[in-house]
Write a structure and sequence with these properties.
heterotrimer, A alpha/beta (247), B alpha/beta (331), C mainly alpha (359), A: alpha/beta, Rossmann fold, six-stranded mixed beta sheet, C: mainly alpha, ABC transporter involved in vitamin B12 uptake, BtuC, two-stranded antiparallel ribbon, 74% helix
């Protein structure tokens, strides 16, 4: 499913975002990068219809997001939130059940989704006693379990150690290869470099660059987006970025 | 609509029908003849006489005794004081009536002056028990008391005695009032004394205002109740009014500490009543100031006795009773 | 993970889920036992044989075969006094427990209860104004009916004040509820101030009591509570989702505003009806959902029915204590729920939470 933004602008008190004008192709990973407060999460919420743009429109699969009911939206997209409320005494299963609201619950798919993040043994654990990283993985698994074509993730690797970050990166690639469309925000530029097909770079709510990763994720654009001087260097795995603060 | 929902709705409907059935069944098992609410306004509209009465009103217990209907009482209350040595079971009356005890005594009527909930009263009526409501609040005066005597007499088949008591009350009242006017003339040149009834010091200066039976005691004794000018019913008077009207005689409930009247800050400190020690605490007759019934005549007699130092004679009580209804040390 | 371990996990999971149904079954049995035993409590002692005969006589068809060795007074005490009071406890306890579970989910806040949305202050205003103004427009049940109408109306007022751009934000709803409650409580105080003689009567209403319940008032309330409780139960999956955040609930396909509207209306209807015949009974709506979560986990599929059953058991027991502690005198049940309930809550919180609410 294609996601299209046409001349989207959004304003709340002193912060304004946009205009954003791009379309995300089916079966790709799109990363949104930028400093804290540059409008990454806001963009995700605009795509998901949680915020209404002041001008322009967002459409998923050529229907306007604003005209979709929550049930229709849930069938098309899932969302991994940066923060979720700690639900009183929920087990992992309860959290997963919530994400199965639309598709109907089914033990096997739930087990598979949890297994994909390596946590199927925690299914009857209390969600609140899990570590921050485990909770993060459970919410990713819940989004997978929701089984929608588009997955929006706000910093899916937050709280994760390096092992689990790699688990998630591999998982994201597998999901893309299975035809899912992924839109996510991330801070790890090397991961973006290795993972994303397209990149949107934001600074202060303005688009710095948009396009394929190879044409967009370069030192020139990164220097515009961050207060850091970047340089790239070669590693055995390809090129990587390093930066020093511009003071 | 999925099958779970259908089953759920079916269960709810079945339960609703069952609950309805149970309730209708229970309402049908309740007594076929409903009880009546009886007041002095409705009068006695019963086809039968009451013979198993629960009295939650000490004033009514005393009246029933005087009427000769004491044998018809099956349950009393903890405030009953007359006749003394009561052997009736005490029915709990606060904060609500103990309906279990009332049902257990197979009572045919409950007499009360309190505002019980409509639900409790309807429980009585549904189970064939009459509810006799006698007011004890503002608005009760001697004419109301006489009507209550008549009502209780009719309900218990002792109407003739009720008439005798009412005649006695009327002649006593006119005797007492003319005696009081006479004493007032001889001692104070017909300028009525200013009086005050101090009921309680709990959270204010509680007294009896206009339209109370206590106020009419003052009227019959030819004493001006200073509290009658400001409010009706039993109420807490503003101390400024006490200071302004400065009572010359005071009737004190026996819960009032006499020495507190003289303490600094007391609105009574400079009143002639305190300065001249015209303070009279109720004793065995204390209940006459809270229970509206025929014995209130003796309260007036006592007020006249303490205020004027005279002992007015009363017509003798028309019914021969084992226990003297007069609680005063005077007779 | 190898196959045997997977099997083991599945077996464990199976057991855990069966345990939940066993728990609910056990609580239900406990409720039935509590109901039957509570019929013994009261100021008049009724022998067990007579009690059993009275039970038998109430069962259609069986009644012809049961000996009628009891007195009319005994039958009246059981059938007209104790049974409606106990079943009233079931209905009111259940509606408060279920309402509490639903409201805590909507607010995602463990210290809320049904009264928070203006219900209690509204019902007090209705009851107190009917007492103080001496209203009789609805006959002897004026007080109950005005309490019901006012309770419901104040919830509507709170709801519409809290409505912003078609959405209800939990914090805003909570604050509006608190603010409106303060205002309405001030009106209650004003009414009481104007007629000091009636403060006692109003005071007892505010403390709550089950003894004003007879079959006539129980009937409509039981039907309302039955229907609203079931309607709330039908929302259990939506409420689970809302417990994880409004935005998350929407992203999984829940119509958040509709769910909130239905739930708040159903809670308001059920609890207003209950409170109108019992007065304000605190504590049940706050605590029973927690106890349920401790026993059965957080999913509303189990929390809602378990809160209802636990609320019913707790309220009947509190009423037994209220009736039994001083023979003949019925202590207002609000006093009992507070004095007995709070230490009990503190104990269970320490014993059973095991850090579940932390972090």
């Amino acid at each position: 499913m294609k996601v299209e933004l046409e001349d989207v602008t959004f304003r709340v008190s002193s912060f304004s975002l946009g205009p954003l004008d791009f379309s995300v192709e089916e079966g790709t990973i799109t990363a949104i990068i930028g400093k804290n407060g540059s409008g990454k999460s806001t963009t995700l919420k605009l795509i998901h219809g949680d915020l209404k743009p002041n001008t322009g429109s967002v459409s998923i699969d050529s229907s306007k997001v604003s005209s979709l009911s929550s049930a229709e939206l849930a069938e098309k997209t899932s969302f991994v939130w940066q923060e979720i409320y700690n639900p009183m005494s929920f087990s992992v299963r309860d959290v997963m059940n919530v994400s199965g609201y639309k598709r109907g619950n089914d033990e096997d798919s739930m087990g598979e989704a949890l297994e994909s993040v390596g946590l199927s043994s925690l299914i009857d654990m209390d969600f609140s006693v899990l570590s921050g990283g485990e909770r993060r993985l459970v919410t990713v698994a819940a989004a997978i379990y929701q089984d929608s074509e588009i997955m929006i993730m706000d910093e899916p690797t937050n709280f994760l150690d390096i092992d689990n970050q790699i688990v998630v990166y591999k998982l994201l690639k597998r999901l893309r290869d299975a035809g899912k469309t992924l839109i996510l925000t991330m801070h790890d530029l090397d991961a973006v470099h290795n993972l994303a097909d397209s990149v949107l770079i934001l600074r202060g709510g303005r688009k710095v660059a948009w396009g394929s990763t190879s044409s967009t994720l370069n030192i020139e654009n990164l220097n515009k987006a961050f207060n850091v001087s970047f340089h790239s260097y070669d590693t055995v795995n390809g090129s990587a970025f390093a930066g020093s603060y511009k003071g | 609509m999925n099958s779970h929902l259908k089953i759920g709705i079916a269960v709810v409907v079945v339960l609703a029908v069952v609950v309805g059935g149970v309730v209708i069944y229970h309402e049908n098992t309740a007594a076929k003849v409903k009880g009546e609410i009886i007041t002095i306004n409705t009068g006695d509209n019963l086809q039968h006489k009451l013979t198993k009465i629960v009295s939650l009103d000490p004033a009514a217990t005393a009246t029933l005794y005087a009427l000769g209907a004491y044998n018809y009482i099956v349950g009393g209350n903890s405030y009953d004081s007359y006749p003394p040595n009561e052997s009736l079971p005490n029915i709990t009356d606060y904060p609500s009536m103990d309906l279990e005890q009332i049902f257990n005594l197979s009572a045919d009527a409950v007499i009360s002056f309190a505002n019980y909930s409509g639900a409790q009263i309807s429980q009585l009526l549904n189970n064939g028990i009459d509810y006799v409501f006698l007011s004890a609040d503002g608005g009760v005066n001697f004419s109301v008391i006489e009507k209550q005597n008549t009502l209780l007499g009719e309900l218990t088949g002792t109407g003739a005695n009720a008439t005798l008591i009412n005649q006695w009350m009327n002649s006593s009242l006119s005797t007492l009032h003319s005696d009081a006017l006479g004493y007032d003339q001889s001692e104070y040149n017909s300028t009525p004394l200013r009086g005050f009834y101090y009921l309680s010091s709990e959270g204010g200066y509680w007294t009896a205002g206009n339209s109370t039976f206590v106020n009419s005691y003052f009227e019959y004794a030819d004493v001006v109740n200073i509290a009658a000018a400001y409010d009706t019913g039993f109420y807490s008077i503003n101390p400024e009014n006490i200071l302004n009207d400065s009572p010359q005689v005071m009737i004190l409930d026996n819960s009032i500490n006499v020495s507190s009247l003289n303490s600094s800050g007391s609105p009574f400190q400079s009143s002639p009543a305190v300065l001249n020690d015209k303070l009279y605490t109720t004793t065995a007759n204390e209940n006459m100031f809270s229970e509206p019934n025929f014995r209130d005549i003796f309260a007036i007699q006592w007020i006249i006795y303490v205020v004027y130092g005279q002992n007015p004679a009363l017509p003798s009580f028309p019914i021969n009773l084992t226990y003297n209804p007069n609680p005063n040390e005077v007779s | 993970m190898n196959v045997t371990e997977n099997e083991r996990v599945k077996a464990f999971v199976q057991r855990r889920r069966e345990m939940k149904y066993i728990w609910i079954g056990f609580l239900f049995l406990l409720l039935i036992i509590t109901i039957l035993l509570s019929d013994f409590v009261g100021s008049v002692r009724i022998p067990i044989l007579n009690l059993l005969e009275i039970y038998g006589s109430q069962i259609p068809f069986l009644s012809n075969f049961v000996p009628h060795g009891y007195t009319l007074a005994q039958e009246q005490i059981i059938v007209q006094l104790r049974e409606p009071e106990i079943l009233g406890g079931v209905v009111i306890g259940a509606s408060l427990g279920i309402g509490g579970a639903a409201i805590q989910s909507i607010f995602r806040n463990p210290i809320t209860e049904p009264y928070i949305i203006g219900l209690s202050s509204g019902a007090s205003l209705g009851a107190v104004s009917s007492i103080v103004l001496g209203l009789t427009i609805f006959g002897i049940y004026t007080q109950q009916i005005t309490a019901f109408i006012f309770g419901l109306s104040i919830v509507f007022i709170v709801y519409f004040f809290a409505l912003k751009g078609g959405r209800i934000h939990p914090t805003y709803l909570l604050l509006t509820g608190v603010a409106v409650s303060f205002f309405v409580s001030a009106l209650v105080a004003l009414l009481l101030f104007t007629n000091i003689n009636l403060q006692g009567e109003a005071f007892f209403w505010l403390l709550g009591s089950l003894e004003n319940i007879n079959w006539t008032v129980l009937y409509p309330v039981a039907i309302v509570v039955l229907i609203t409780s079931y309607a709330i139960y039908l929302q259990h999956r939506e409420l689970d989702a809302i417990q994880m955040g409004d935005m998350h609930a929407r992203s999984v396909g829940v119509n958040v505003e509709r769910t909130k509207r239905i739930t708040i209306f159903m809670v308001a209807l059920g609890v207003s009806a209950s409170v109108s015949i019992s007065g304000l009974i605190g504590f049940v709506g706050l605590v029973m959902p927690h106890l349920s979560r401790m026993l059965l986990g957080g999913s509303n599929k189990h929390v809602i029915p378990a809160s209802g059953i636990l609320g019913a058991i707790f309220l009947i027991c509190a009423d037994d204590i209220a009736r039994g502690i001083v023979p003949g005198i019925v202590v207002p049940i609000g006093i009992v729920t507070g004095i007995i309930g709070v230490p009990f809550l503190m104990y269970f919180m320490r014993k059973l939470t095991g850090g579940k609410y932390e972090g």
